[in-house]
Each structure stands twice: as C-alpha cells, then as structure tokens.
Design goal:
Helix content is 47%, strand content 12%. 33% of the residues are buried. The protein is built from 15 helices and 8 strands. Bound molecules: iron/sulfur cluster. The site of iron/sulfur cluster has 12 residues, from helix 3 and helix 12. It comes from Actinoplanes aureus.
Length: 350
C-alpha cells in the first residue's frame, strides 16, 4: 500500500501507531471497515471524535497511567531487580533495554530486537520492537513488556497496574491483558519463523505481573493464551485487505483534523462502520458511531442483530411485529417470532 495514500487520508498530523490494544480491538470487530482504514492511516480517532462533536471518555485515567508508570519503573529499577525476583529469573541473566538507546528509529530498534532474539543467549529484553501483518499492512508493535529467555523458551511478560486482590482480579481487565499478550506471542512467533527458528519456542503461557492486594508489591501469574491465539489468528485472516478498502474510497477523501466538522462527517460516511455495543469499550469513535446507528437493530447488540437477520431497523421490527408491514421471504421466520413475542407481551400486560 502506498504510504502517500495513507498520509493523504490522515492529513498533516502525526500517525498514531497500532499497538496490541488496537489490534485486539480491530480483531474484536473484524467487519468494521471504518476502524480498519482509520487505524491503517494512523488517524488520531480521539481527536477525530472531538472534531465531529462526539468526544468520549476513552482510555486510562491520569491516575491509572501514573500508577502504572510508577509500578513499571519500580519493577525495572536496578537492572530489573524486583522483576527478576518476582519472575524467579537468575540475577546472572543479562538485561537489554532497547528503549533506552538514543537511536530510536523503528527499523533500527526492530533490527536490534531481531539480533537479540536470534541469539540463543538472549535474556531479559525490555522494549523490544516487533512486527505483525495486519490486513496486508506490516505494523510495528512496541510492547510494554519484557520477553525473556527462560530455560530455552521465550515468554511474554505483561506488566499491568490493576490489582490482584486475594488472588482475584477484574475479569474484563485480565481478559483484555490476555488478548494483548496473545498479540505479542503471535508477533514473536512470526519473527522466529522468519528467522528459521521453531515458533513453538515462544510459550503459550504468558506472565502477568500486577500489584498485589492494596500495595504496589508485585505478584506474577501465568495465563494460558492458546484460546486467544486461535481467535486472533482466525480474526486476522478474516480482516479484509485494507488496501482494497482504501482503493474503493473516493479520490481526495481525507481526515485532516483541520477540516470543518461537516467535511469530516461526510468523509466518515464513505467508510462502512459495523457498530456493536462492545465498541463503547474498545473504540474511540464509539459515541459517534452509536449516534449514527441509532434506530438500527445493530445498536441492540450482536445477538439481537443475528436473531433479526435481514431486518435493519427498529421501526421495521415494530411494523413486522404488529403486522402493519408484510415480511419479505427471508424475514418471514423472524417476523413470525416477533408477532408471537408481541402477542405474549400483550397477554402478559393485559
Ligand atoms: S465505534 Fe465505529 S469505527 Fe469503531 S469499531 Fe465500532 S463501528 Fe467501527
């Protein structure tokens, strides 16, 4: 894909880079062309949502961010002393911090990551830079983690600031962390494959390091991400090629954030969304897309949309239920269920 076309789509702003969270969100809604195109072009969706008048409160709070940064800095201080102890890693294991180098160009950092991983003596690797093919586009991943060689195997370590209290943690946060870690496992495995090494050297068990109880003392737990890996692989293979989505857009379309809101809204209208209530927790444009989808069955969630296959709007649903509209052949089954549901509701209320 020509980067000039992506630059034109984004406008003069700096490109936002993909990360494990955006890939997890993308694969969570593989039918959404809008997100795929905006992410490929690196459009700042938080600012875009603000410009079109639908800002959302998305992302971590400042408090959570600073707590997370403090926790990570504490773990990595003194050559990762605390992290080594919680991982049970030997103090003789070397520590390589790629993020601390002055040369911060992506290509060079990725090359250094490759060199370290090609070296069987690789040890704790901080700020590695990996790549993954997403919808025909190679994206860089800057994991906030350490991959380390442990008894000949590479393990992904994910540091999170949410607490594990009495052995329990917020299940939504744990499952989001597991999907993100699975993205890194996938990227590491594809890198080993390119190096001609055995990809199964990357463990399907990742290590999650979190604060324990109400302190900042770390605790490490292992998560098996095999299920997340197979879902990710399947969803990534289902993502339409971004290049073909972009080729289908009208010439000259751009999301330059300096444009008036009306022009940006028109531009958004050229790319097919696929709104679902899950977007509210995964996509920065969710408030805009929810408003746009108002009145459609999609707003009610995937199970409802699937049960009402072929019926696009709530008005149509109501009309089919009260018989004021005749169903098409493919709507007949859903229409019969809707009429029965309305009858039961009327009986229950009378
Ligand atoms: S909020 Fe909109 S752009 Fe984002 S994934 Fe959902 S439908 Fe796609």
């Amino acid at each position: 894909m020509q980067s000039t076309r992506l630059d034109q789509l984004r406008g003069p702003g700096r490109a936002k880079r993909h990360n494990a969270r955006t890939i997890a969100a993308l694969t969570g809604n593989p039918g959404c062309a809008r997100r795929a195109v905006l992410d490929a072009a690196g459009v700042d969706k938080v600012k875009l949502a603000e410009r079109v008048g639908f800002p959302g409160s998305f992302g971590q709070s400042r408090f959570a961010l600073s707590r997370g940064n403090a926790f990570e800095a504490m773990l990595k201080a003194d050559d990762c002393a605390l992290l080594r102890s919680v991982l049970g890693a030997a103090s003789s294991l070397s520590y390589q911090d790629l993020g601390a180098d002055s040369d911060d160009t992506l290509g060079n950092r990725h090359d250094r990551t490759v060199e370290l991983l090609a070296d069987a003596r690789a040890a704790l690797i901080d700020h590695p830079l990996l790549t993954l093919d997403v919808a025909g586009q190679t994206v860089y991943l800057e994991p906030d983690l350490i991959a380390y060689a442990h008894r000949g195997r590479l393990q992904v370590v994910e540091i999170k600031s949410f607490a594990i209290v009495d052995g329990q943690a917020d299940s939504a946060k744990v499952s989001a962390a597991a999907v993100q870690a699975a993205v890194y496992v996938l990227a590491l495995r594809s890198l080993l494959e390119r190096l001609g090494q055995d990809p199964s050297l990357v463990d399907h068990e990742v290590v999650l390091v979190c604060p324990e109880n109400f302190s900042l003392s770390p605790v490490a737990v292992k998560l098996d991400v095999r299920k997340q890996l197979s879902t990710l692989r399947r969803q990534l293979s289902r993502l339409a090629s971004v290049a073909s989505l972009i080729d289908a857009l009208p010439e000259g379309i751009t999301f330059d954030l300096a444009l008036p809101a009306e022009e940006l809204t028109v531009a958004l209208g050229h790319i097919e969304p696929r709104y679902a209530p899950e977007c509210l927790s995964t996509c920065e444009l969710s408030v805009y897309c929810r408003n746009e989808a108002a009145g459609s069955t999609a707003v009610l969630g995937r199970p409802v949309r699937e049960a009402l296959g072929g019926i696009e709007t709530v008005d149509e649903v109501l009309a089919l239920a009260d018989g004021s509209r005749s169903p098409t052949e493919e709507q007949a089954e859903a229409a019969a269920l809707l009429r029965a549901a309305l009858r039961l509701r009327s009986e229950a209320l009378s």
